[in-house]
Design a protein that fits this description.
Length: 361
């Protein structure tokens, strides 16, 4: 059986499924899921991420987290955590750089949250001191938490709603037609989770909502508020959500998300407005800051120049291209944002400032 056959049978038995359920099955089905069955990263895979482009990304993130740890009095022990670490490259770069920060490694309890057994294997090879937990709720409740997540939230399932007449919405649901999966719209209904979007949308607008993201961020914020720590959440997106950003990527090209479930990476832009909303009652949140601006503030250009001094020929050319790719507004520099969280009593994370116009709590 294939995932497509399984989903068609399920729809035949119980009716159309939400986009969120569809995404969850495609990405994490235990037997056929996209992440469950492969390592999707890099040139041979479907997409490339910032840590895979250059070591500079992880180096600067590592130093930012270590500085925040020092600013908070170098607490020991503390949890050093990553959500969705992929191949473990980002954390390996963080560890290499922070080895020079006295006491940091001795105090760090490296904890990873990863759903894919394949990628857990990759991570174990690169990060021999790591342990894994299944959810944020299983992170230590006593220790300060310094956490990073790069391109994790875009992989969490979203539901999609089209604003109908009045205060009602029509949800995108996946049905079947002649043996193929086909998106359609459910009848209009009220959506309690979208009440706060009624004033900022009008009939015909599309809004996406990631139900799993919000409790996750609230849980992280709660640990940081109680025990100290900081979080850097990095992803593509903006907010508030408006329009269809659901996409499938296969072999570095856009694909039909419904043609071959489990074979393509499915993502949506991250709604940073909602992530901040989930956190700000408990911790200080930054503005969603452009990745290019954040990395420049942390000194990526100086670091790039220092590394360039040791390079020539094609290696130098690819290093220069990597710097540009991470920071230039037409590449990843503006599409990607960084949201920082830290305790209300603590110094801001390096490269970030408290949000300029906090919304009501
Ligand atoms: N952060 C890495 C990889 C990004 S790809 C990088 O920047 O290169 C997304 C990662 O999140 C993968 O490791 C994937 O397996 C993991 N992931 C996706 N959904 C998840 C979930 N619900 N729980 C835990 N991990 C998840």
């Amino acid at each position: 059986m294939s995932l497509k056959a399984e989903l068609l049978a399920r729809i035949a038995a119980t009716g159309p499924m939400t986009l969120g359920d569809y995404m969850a099955e495609c990405l994490l089905h235990p037997r056929y899921g996209y992440y469950t069955t492969r390592d999707p990263l890099g040139a041979a895979g479907d997409f490339t991420t910032a840590p895979e482009i250059s070591q500079m990304f992880g180096e600067l993130i590592g130093l930012a987290l270590a500085q925040s740890w020092l600013d908070q009095g170098a607490p020991a022990p503390f949890t050093l955590a990553e959500l969705g670490p992929g191949r473990g490259t980002l954390m390996a770069d963080i560890l290499r750089t922070t080895a020079r920060v006295p006491g940091f490694h001795d105090a760090a309890r490296l904890t990873l949250i990863e759903a894919s057994p394949t990628l857990r294997g990759e991570q174990a090879r690169r990060l021999p001191t790591a342990t894994w937990v299944d959810t944020v709720a299983h992170l230590s409740a006593e220790q300060p938490l310094f956490l990073v997540a790069n391109e994790f939230f875009d992989a969490l399932p979203i539901r999609q709603f089209h604003r109908a007449q009045g205060e009602e919405w029509r949800e995108v649901v996946i049905g079947a037609e002649g043996g193929t999966l086909k998106p359609g719209l459910a009848p209009p209904a009220l959506q309690p989770a979208l009440m706060h979007r009624l004033l900022s949308t009008s009939e015909g607008d599309i809004v996406e909502h990631s139900a799993p993201a919000l409790p996750l961020v609230a849980e992280i914020a709660g640990i940081i508020a109680r025990n100290g720590g900081a979080a850097l959440l990095i992803d593509y997106g903006a907010g508030p959500s408006l329009g269809d950003t659901f996409q499938a990527l296969e072999n570095h090209h856009f694909a039909d998300p419904f043609a071959a479930p489990g074979e393509a990476d499915l993502t949506a832009h991250v709604d940073f407005t909602e992530l901040a909303r989930a956190a700000r009652a408990q911790v200080t949140v930054s503005d969603p800051t452009l990745q290019g601006v954040f990395l420049e503030r942390l000194g990526i250009t100086e670091r790039a120049q220092a590394l360039a001094a040791c390079l020539t020929g094609p290696a130098l050319a690819s290093h220069i291209a990597a710097h540009r790719r991470l920071t230039h507004p037409e590449e990843m520099g503006s599409l990607f944002k960084v949201l920082g969280l830290w305790p209300q009593s603590a110094e801001p994370l390096p490269g970030l400032a408290p949000e300029s116009q906090p919304e009501p709590k």
